[in-house]
Amino acid sequence: MSIVKDKPINLFEACISKRPTSHGAPPSQQAGGSRLGRPRRAVPKGENVFKEGDNADVYYKVASGVVRTYTVLNDGRRIIDAFHFADDILGLDPGTQHRFSATSVCDVVVTSFVRSDLDRILDSDKELSRQVQSSLVVSLGRAQDHLVLLGLRTPREKIQAFMGSIAQRASRSRIPKLQIQQSDIADYLGLSRETVSRTLAQLKCDRNNAGHASPPIVCMGKLPVTAG
């Protein structure tokens, strides 16, 4: 079996709708995001926000960018749990240690919160309380959607559904250009990297043969595969 080089895929360059905001920035970068006055931390692409096994005394809210959370099994396989966009909460674990690692898919800014202050913060800041509760409910829904996604029959179905979901979330977060590694798609969907590469190539070929633009959720016209 040939080894497929890991390649970033530009999924959304032309298909993200750019909705204007009061300052041209994502919601979390406008006044409501900075009003909380919590410490912010810039995380360059590919760097860790936290690692599995670290003390879970701090949790985070994504201010901008995308973060993946994952675990690595004893046999070396990586399992991606979720992708987190602006306003998502991550690292709020039930135990004293983080159960997953979190790394940045692109340049990221996160706002940090001390876990021991959670009750006091939620009591004193009703807006933050609403955001945390909403984020946790949405995260539960996405976990359920992930289970359904894994149950789809074919790699083609899984990849198209994944691309549509990520494109919609990138649009809501006002990310005009996002690169996702083929290895990320594979490890999130439980597929081999060879299968992901082959399926993406087939989708692009089908689009070209059709002779017309693909639906926005697929965006196959903007899937240039560049060396990662």
Provide the CATH topology. Jelly Rolls
- Percentage of β-strand residues: 15-25%
Give the % helix: 25-40%
Report the count of strand segments: 10
- In CATH terms, what is the architecture? Sandwich
Give the overall pLDDT as a whole number: 76
Largest sheet: 4 strands, antiparallel
Tell me the strand order in the biggest sheet.
2-9-4-7
Q: Count helical runs.
A: 6
CATH superfamily: Jelly Rolls
* Gyration radius from CA atoms, angstroms: 18 Å
Structural class: alpha+beta
Would you identify the regions where 5 or more consecutive residues have pLDDT less than 50? 1-5, 7-37, 212-228
Structural topology:
Elements: E1 8-10, H1 31-34, E2 40-43, E3 48-50, E4 58-64, E5 67-72, E6 78-84, E7 89-90, E8 101-104, E9 108-114, H2 118-124, H3 126-150, H4 155-172, E10 179-181, H5 182-189, H6 193-210
Quickly list its features:
single chain, 228 residues, alpha+beta, Jelly Rolls, 4-stranded antiparallel beta sheet, 6 helices, 10 strands, 20% strand, disordered N terminus, disordered C terminus
Give a written overview of the molecule.
This protein has a single domain, classed as Jelly Rolls. It is 35% helix and 20% strand. It is built from six helices and ten strands, in the order βαββββββββαααβαα. The strands form three sheets. The chain has a four-stranded antiparallel β-sheet with strand order 2-9-4-7. Strands 3-8-5-6 form a four-stranded antiparallel β-sheet. The chain has a two-stranded antiparallel ribbon with strand order 1-10. The protein has helices spanning 31-34, 118-124, 126-150, 155-172, 182-189, 193-210; strands at 8-10, 40-43, 48-50, 58-64, 67-72, 78-84, 89-90, 101-104, 108-114, 179-181. With 228 residues, the protein is α+β, with helices and mostly antiparallel strands.
